[in-house]
Specification:
alpha+beta; four-stranded mixed β-sheet; 7 helices; globular; OB fold (Dihydrolipoamide Acetyltransferase, E2P); about 30% helix; about 270 residues; binds zinc ion
Length: about 270
């Protein structure tokens, strides 16, 4: 397998994990738009991630190569030459820019799978291990698996410097205690419950532990954003993938454009007024 230069649109990134071999790493999922294929690039070192400003929905070019040892297990897995990473376009990064959510949705709708059942089946047939689904919106519920003050978090205070003079912070390790329950938009879906390790969610938990002084306030804040706001005010899509070595599917990213229905409703009512 040789290295090839490809352009990737970054869709999801998981909360950084500590790795003995690679330091702090981030698992990144994206789409190669020229062929509309999913790609998982791993590992990318956390410091490279921050230095290169690899934000969600940035487009970047890099030299990647199929990960031989993983190919039989997950077909979208690639290794990446960190030095080759170059940002090519950041026009979809800022969610406040007009039309950005529409453009992002248009791209992701092309990769949308109808159900988790479909994805699990594709995994069995051809080792497809990444995808995006849009659950039945009324069925989704954000779950905090245990009282927030019991969620284990291993906070590291020591700071080292790397060759670039940057701080190498070991990431706080957070127990996987957040999940979503939902049903797919098909008949006969019995429902799913999946752990969520989206970076944004776990970073909220990590930061808000300091902001909100009581467990009740922290829980309220998390539910307010990741349940009430994301489900009632937005359209929630789940970027999903399998965990290394296992067949277990988890949520690796949340995609939450403004609800389409709200605009349509306005249009409809103005239509009826005429
Ligand atoms: Zn289902």
């Amino acid at each position: 397998m040789s290295w090839e230069k490809r352009e990737i649109l970054l869709i999801a990134k998981t909360y950084p994990e500590r790795s003995q071999k690679y330091g702090n790493t981030v698992c990144t999922a994206g789409i190669m738009e020229d062929t509309n294929e999913w790609v998982r690039v791993y590992p990318i070192n956390l410091n490279v991630y921050l230095r290169k400003k690899l934000k969600k929905f940035v487009r970047f070019k890099a030299e990647i190569r199929k990960n031989k040892s993983e190919m039989i297990k997950r077909k979208e897995s690639y290794k990446i030459r960190e030095k080759s990473i170059k940002i090519t376009d950041d026009s979809l990064v800022d969610p406040k820019v007009k039309g950005v959510w529409e453009e992002r949705t248009k791209i992701l709708e092309k990769s949308l799978s109808e159900s988790m059942e479909f994805l699990k089946n594709q995994f069995e047939i051809k080792r497809m291990s990444l995808g995006i689904i849009k659950p039945h919106q009324k069925s989704i519920k954000f779950l905090i698996e245990k009282p927030v003050d019991n969620v284990e978090i291993d906070v590291i205070k020591e700071v080292q410097l790397n060759l670039f003079g940057e701080q190498v912070r070991k990431v706080d390790k957070i127990e996987h205690a957040f999940s979503y329950r939902y049903k797919c938009n098909i008949e006969n879906c019995k429902g799913h419950k999946m752990i969520c390790i989206d970076w944004e969610l776990l970073e909220s938990f990590r930061k808000w532990r300091k902001t909100y002084k009581t467990p009740q306030k922290l829980e309220f804040a998390l539910i307010n954003r990741y349940n009430d706001w994301m489900i009632k005010e937005r359209d929630l899509y789940l970027v999903v993938g399998t965990i290394w070595r296992y067949k277990t599917w988890i949520i690796i990213g949340l995609f939450y454009p403004p609800k389409k229905g709200q605009k349509t409703q306005k249009k409809l009512s103005s239509f009826f007024k005429k």
